[in-house]
Design goal:
Gyrase A, domain 2; five-stranded mixed β-barrel; 589 residues
Length: 589
């Protein structure tokens, strides 16, 4: 209202045009928002005439006077809803074709269309808001890191190709025929070398590249806050990252509530209670081990699973007894898709304490194999009562964890169990150092090969690798991994042992990691760090399910760009310059 009576010149896009009772109204949009223009045929006949031909997304310039809207015509949903601009002059700076989808409505748009015309999709208020939120997040991070005495250092993009988990994007060298650079999957080795260099506190808003199968939280190129600290222990890193997210969430996403301090649980505890190393803690549905109660039951499926080294684990769904047969069948199929052989269900109906339940009040295809006393014990162990539903999986832990995690997530979505106004941050610690790769019959690193083992587990590196815990840790929130990090190996001898355990010969280790082994021989300090995902963090704050909605120009799930046509073939001359020949895929030969 402080601008009422002022003469203004405004430029922007026509967001919406409408005619009412001889007057023309235009909602004018620019990067700062939307304001209503009003055109009177008597007061500004020339401008009114021009406005007759104006359409959505035209670029226009107007001059006029800011006026208060008539009482009763204000728009409380617009920041400028109490005023309008009485236009004296209107000029069309550029016309626009009809967009392939509405820009002034937040209606669904086909993936290919919204990426093919990304510059139009970004005009939508929600998308503009997401990019502004991303700016505020990055700005906050830089200021926070600077206030904690970190130094921002850019690291190379053209790197040596080394095994770090995902496939590398390779870049051929023109001046070194037959040789290739690799785009960084992360600045992992560079930040460790900066610690060897004595910087002590480094950070970078780093671009990373991974040639991997895509999903909602993955893109071939993504951005992370990369940070590293010398002379620290695990708690020092976790405390810093918790401080960052506590302050940043309060500053840029104050609409959310969140726990403080962040809970911390081990990988083993997380898998046991939730079947996942990134559980959504906004709802319970915790897993219970029913094995001791069913070991001697007459139900052969349970007995055989336990005898084969598995367990019977279950979750109780509050109020789940109301799920119809069709819903039970869908949950069973979901469990099978996750690898389980089936799903055992028990619905506890009737009223009163669970201890007073009768067999007639238990709706289950396997109820006849159990006594009432056994059923009551199962319900109590899972925390179920009257009106609840018990879902049990009998199998190896890896399968039951995966199946019950999938069921937890689906049930939470179906039954709206997660509070959308809450962020449940937590740290997961003590990940296994190694996992057995069935396809290649060898051990592989769970996080990456520079992750430090627990000192008390080092003696078991060669004798029992599967039991070795690592100083790896994740920050999770609402069922997503937001950040991952670790305390690093900083001693040459220990790194050599880990490389050998992973199947590398001395010659191969020297070829791929000789620079790291050499650096560690020159007094490398103890160090550790973390790498919060910028895309995932902004998507979390914005309430978006897909990180592409907070990236200006993302790729499709097949890693292509419908707008520019990338990736695309290049000319024979360009290939010759970098000494590359394209060979047809084997299936096409």
């Amino acid at each position: 209202m402080e601008h009422v009576g002022q003469q203004v010149t405004l430029v922007g896009w026509v967001h919406r045009r409408r005619d009412h009772g001889g007057l023309a109204f235009i909602d004018l949009r620019d990067a700062s928002g939307i304001v209503q223009l009003v055109l009177h045929p008597e007061q500004a006949p020339a401008a009114f005439a021009v406005a007759a031909d104006v359409r959505n997304e035209y670029v226009i310039l107007v001059r006029g006077e800011v006026a208060a809207r008539r009482p009763g015509t204000e728009n409380a949903e617009m920041p400028t809803g109490a005023v309008e601009v009485a236009v004296a002059h209107l000029e069309v700076l550029n016309t626009a074709e009809t967009p392939p989808f509405p820009v002034n409505q937040d209606t669904p748009v086909d993936e290919i269309a919204r990426l093919r015309y990304r510059y139009l999709y970004l005009r939508r208020e929600r998308m503009t808001g997401n990019l502004r939120l991303r700016h505020r997040v990055v700005k906050f991070i830089r200021e926070f890191m600077d206030s904690h005495e970190f130094i921002e250092v850019e690291t190379p993009v053209l790197n040596l190709a080394t095994p770090e988990g995902a496939r590398d994007y390779l870049v051929p060298s023109r001046v070194h025929p037959g040789s290739f650079y690799a785009l960084p999957q992360s600045p992992q080795q560079w930040k460790q070398l900066l610690m060897v260099a004595g910087l002590e506190r480094y950070f970078q808003i780093a671009r990373c590249y991974r040639d991997e199968d895509l999903r909602a939280d993955r893109q071939p190129e993504f951005t992370q806050l990369d940070l590293e600290m010398s002379f620290v222990e695990e708690d020092d890193v976790l405390d810093l990252v918790e401080g960052l997210y506590t302050a940043m969430t309060a500053a840029v996403a104050p609409q959310y509530s969140f726990p403080s301090p962040f809970p911390r649980m081990t990988y083993r505890e997380s898998m046991e209670r939730f079947g996942s190393d990134k559980p959504d803690l906004r709802y319970e549905l915790e897993i219970a081990d029913l094995s001791p109660l069913v070991r001697e039951s007459e139900f052969v499926v349970f007995k055989r699973a336990i005898e084969a080294g598995g367990r019977v684990r279950a979750i109780a769904v509050p109020g789940g007894a109301d799920i119809a047969r069709r819903g039970i069948d869908a949950l069973t199929e979901l469990a099978r898709e996750a690898g389980a052989q089936g799903l055992v269900t028990m619905a506890f109906t009737g009223e009163g304490p669970i201890e007073a339940i009768t067999l007639d009040e238990v709706r289950s295809p396997v109820a006849r194999f159990f006594t009432v006393e056994q059923i009551v014990a199962l319900a109590q162990a899972a925390g179920a009562g009257r009106g609840d539903l018990l879902l049990a999986v009998a199998d190896r832990d890896a399968i039951s964890s995966r199946a019950l995690d999938v069921l937890r997530r689906q049930l939470a979505e179906d039954r709206a169990l997660a509070d959308p106004s809450r962020l449940e941050f937590a740290f997961i610690t003590q990940f296994p150092m190694f996992e057995w790769d069935e396809n290649e019959s060898r051990w592989s690193a769970v996080h990456h090969l520079f992750t430090a083992p627990f000192a008390e587990d080092v003696d078991r590196l060669e004798s029992d690798p599967g039991s070795v815990r690592s100083h790896a840790y994740d920050l999770i929130c609402n069922g997503q991994e937001i950040s991952s990090g670790s305390i690093r190996i900083h001693q040459r001898a220990l790194l050599s042992r880990v490389l050998a355990l992973l199947g590398m010969s001395d010659a191969e280790a020297e070829q791929k990691f000789g620079h790291m082994l050499e650096a560690f021989a020159f007094g490398a300090p103890p160090h550790g760090g973390m790498a919060p995902g910028i895309d995932r963090t902004v998507a979390l704050y914005a309430g978006e399910r897909d990180i592409r909605e907070v990236i200006a120009f993302p790729k499709t799930k097949s890693a292509s760009d419908p707008m520019t046509g990338a990736p695309s073939p290049v000319s024979a001359a360009q290939l010759a310059e970098v000494h590359i020949a394209v060979v047809a895929p084997a299936a096409a030969l």
